[in-house]
Amino acid sequence: MIITRPRDWGRIEANLAEVGAKSVFIMGCGQCATVASTGGEKEVLQAKTALEQAGYAVSGWAVGEVTCHSGGTRLETRKHFGDLEAADAVLVLSCGAGVQTVADAVKKPVFPGLESVFLGNVVRHGVFEERCQMCGDCVLDQTAGICPVTTCPKGLLNGPCGGMWDGKCEVLRDRDCTHVRIQRRLIEQGRGGTKLLPAKDFSKKLKPGSVNLREKKGGAR
Fold first, then answer.
1. Are strands 110-112 and 89-92 parallel, antiparallel or unpaired?
2. Would 28 disulfide with which of 23, 39, 109, 165, CB 3.0-4.6 Å?
3. Do residues 89 and 21 lie in contact, with contact meaning Cβ atoms separated by under 8 Å?
4. With contact defined as beta carbons under 8 Å apart, do 166 and 131 qualify?
5. Alpha-helical segments (H) within the chain
6. Beta strands 2-6 and 114-124, pairing class
7. pLDDT tens per residue, range 100-145
8. At 171, phi and psi to the nearest 5?
9. CB of 134 closer than 8 Å to CB of 126
10. pLDDT score for 220
11. Got the DSSP string for 41-78?
């Protein structure tokens, strides 16, 4: 899931002032931002109160089921057509993908209310960890299911670095070194030690990414 955090409120107000907004519609997200407690109904209502206290009118609000889903977001905006027409701007409490989806669906100025931080694993309720950078050149098959680039604070594909001491990371000193963890797990699984991994092929992560599952099925493309 995409982990988000609240954006600086002063920047949000500056965005609204830039377009002379007096009335705002708020859109939240029923998936990632709700789980992260940044863009669910509770947080949308908190934003509504903050905007009203700052002197803005809130024409309406909604929490889309999945804000980054184009079809669902267009349907949600149609449900709230009148409230959106009454707004001078739209504040979106979701990841950047959701903000862009809303911006495609409405003609009003659309501004983010959150910062997209990372793709997170849910460790337990309210606790998230970044473990994947979606690089397009995965090495988890060779590193016992532990991503060295993401979980090593230095982003080292091969390691450990010279600062590792007693199996601990020199940056996050209360944590085991990622490369030591990989080595231990590989040995526990009877797979030998780590091997030198070749440099990442960054051509596999061309931007913007796109996948069309509706194309005619056939050979690989």
1. parallel
2. 39
3. yes
4. no
5. 9-18, 32-35, 41-53, 70-79, 81-85, 96-105, 148-151, 178-188
6. antiparallel
7. 999 999 999 999 999 999 999 989 988 999 999 999 899 998 999 9
8. -90, -55
9. no
10. 45
11. HHHHHHHHHHHHHTT-EEEEEEEESSTT-HHHHHHHHH
pLDDT of residue 221: 44
H-helix segments, 60-136: 70-79, 81-85, 96-105
Q: Return the closest-CA partner of residue 100 out of 77, 71, 66, 70.
A: 70
Which position has the token pair 């090495």?
139
Distance CA 81, CA 96 (A): 22
For 56-85, give one letter per residue: b (16+ CB within 10 A) or e: bebbbbbbbebbbbeebbbebbeebeebbe
Among 65, 77, 64, which Cα is nearest to 104's? Answer: 77
CA distances from 126 to 30, 34, 121, 220 (A): 16, 11, 11, 40
pLDDT of residue 70 exceeding 50, the answer is: yes
DSSP state of 163: T
Q: What is the mean pLDDT of residues 18-27?
A: 98
Question: Three-class SS of residue 183?
Answer: helix
pLDDT of residue 216: 63
Instruction: Please write down the long-range contacts of 33-37, taking CB distance under 8 Å and 24 or more positions apart.
Output: 33/2, 33/4, 33/67, 33/93, 33/94, 33/95, 33/98, 33/114, 34/63, 35/1, 35/122, 36/1, 36/2, 36/3, 36/4, 36/120, 36/128, 37/126
Residues of the chain with CATH 3.40.50.11860: 2-118
CATH 3.40.50.11860 fits 2-118, yes or no: yes
State the pTM of this model: 0.86
